């Protein structure tokens, strides 16, 4: 839920993704099933802002990898749940999606600066972010921890533990600092928050024993547990559910276009098909809204 990156550059990030020869934590190289081909719906396509409509393209800012939502397959193609859904959205709008990679913290500023039309990187819709961009909600996720099998980590009492996160996510900027402060306020040792540039590296850190646990969005943690083939398990339940959203420029009518397109895909069943293909159907929503932040 919570790729809540603040719009500042992360520092102190470590990288261990090249430290292991194992590829067991890799997500599937392609979609596990063919994604539905969405056709243009004229009434919805006609709501697209004229400059975007005339270009024929939807410029999408994306940060990878964040499996299973967005990552590259073995051929280098960007794939994932978010990608299949955005492809269907663009098809409904009569547009061709053009994915442009960027640092996660730079996507929202690039939307404000008109470099991207929309962001697609598991952004959490928050009230703070709604001050600078509008969001169209499309999914609901929570936070979940993972640990090595049998490690006995308790996310509600992890004082003194080393916990891996992807830098600038909600887990890095909000969740773990708050939990660590609660530890020190109680006279206990702080949580050692170990930051990584990518979620793959954070996951590898737990597998390699460099940290004792990791905290990430619930679909990402679920995928990591699955792909590490018995090396990791959930530590506690999912908590703090909140909506993912697509950020667009503040006040842009593109928000209404995206909302209408997703409503259409929900009604047609394509939304459910795409979510089920990627094993994230538990996070499906019934109705997209503009600026639906819960906190």
Please, could you describe this protein's structure?
It comes from Mycolicibacterium sediminis. Residues 20-39 have a biased composition (Low complexity). Residues 1-15 form the signal peptide. The structure is a single chain. With 295 residues, the protein is an alpha/beta fold. The protein folds into two domains: 42-141 and 242-283, Periplasmic binding protein-like II (D-Maltodextrin-Binding Protein, domain 2, 3-Layer(aba) Sandwich), CATH 3.40.190; 142-240, D-Maltodextrin-Binding Protein, domain 2. It is 30% helix and 23% strand. The protein has helices at 42-45, 50-55, 81-92, 104-112, 170-185, 199-207, 218-227, 254-268, 270-277, and strands at residues 57-62, 71-72, 78-79, 96-101, 118-119, 133-148, 162-166, 192-196, 213-217, 232-249. The strands form three sheets. The protein has a five-stranded mixed beta sheet, sandwiched between helices. β2 (71-72) and β3 form a beta hairpin. It is globular. The relative contact order is 0.23.
